[in-house]
Amino acid sequence: MNIAIVGTGYVGLVSGTCFSEMGVDVTCVDVNEEKINALLRGEIPIYEPELDEMVLRNHREGRLKFTTDLASVLDDVDIVFSAVGTPPDEDGSADLSYVLQVARTVGQHMNKYLVLVTKSTVPVGTARKVKAVIQEELDKRGVQIEFDVASNPEFLKEGAAIKDFMSPDRVVVGVESERARNLMTKLYRPFLLNNFRVIFTDIPSAEMIKYAANSMLATRISFMNDIANLCELVGADVNMVRKGIGSDSRIGSKFLYPGCGYGGSCFPKDVKALIKTAEQQGYDMKVLKAVEDVNEKQKSILFEKLSKFYGGELSGKQVCLWGLAFKAETDDMREATSLVTIKLLLEAGCKVKVYDPVAMDECRRRIGDTVEYATDMYDAALNADALLLLTEWKCFRLPSWGVIAKEMNKPLVIDGRNIYDPQEMHEYGIEYFCIGR
Length: 437
Description:
The chain is an alpha/beta fold. The chain contains 18 helices and 14 strands. 44% of the residues lie in helices and 14% in strands.
């Protein structure tokens, strides 16, 4: 089976590579010639565990190809996945210009039946717009060619995307014809053989499922952050509260970990887009607006704890940051709490030294030399007046606290992910603060 995937960003490259791993012939398409040339040289533009090895192997074995010319592959494929970006506009709505451009190109150059599948996260009603654009281009050409559109939202967690794709909780496919359903069933047959759930729905429902899922997870995080902040005020321990409510089978334990705010490419963007979709329908998503508000405030909580400790006198303080990526196992800094924290620290006159095992280059790309880049986690803590943990990388879990306490100017640790033991910190003479305890 031959397919094309347009867009070699996070979703497109992971999806294309995993499909090729399952024996599908995949051509990944991107208008960025530099990116395609890099992929042809074996250079992977994103960090994701196991991805580079899988890309190289499938490209070498001929199942995974790369090109900048979508038109040239349309005669050879049965399905085209659109995995291009849908960045938020200034008003929070999803920018569909790249999605519609893919549809336009397909309509201008297709010569046989195919299914155009939206893989990107798009608002409800996008498939209808995509279908209209394709038909408009076919009408301009004066040709009658059957086609279908479908929605197949991705549910990949950065840092575990390969596992999520190959062993999914569920695969959601929105279709509007039996022919499209049969073709998508054929594509996902390896997953059906392994008894993974492939859920077929109508297209609007498939489009809504992705937004609703991410918004629910974001809601759980913001709810627990709100509870954690209240726990501090009343003397409760949020970790005990989390275990207590998570043991309720109706609630479960996942996404109940408090911290210093969520970030990344999905939750912030999707919450904003769903709020905007509701506004366009005359409906007010009050819960999600509160979720967004709580999260934005939570991103400054480590700075606020630091400022409170020093009585607001932060000018000239040397601050160490452990972690820059929005989560572990990725170099993604989109909407990362680290960016908010760095901005606040610099505005307060602090000197900031940072370390992340993967995201240092991405940080340089975003903010240049406004901070000092450490050679390792211990170098970052040298002569620091405070150490702030923002990302729970494994390398940060069991540091040599005796060494760190001696090399810091002031042994002060503010833990934004609640991964350290307060008693252990006390034994090393480290002043320790976390979230919700």
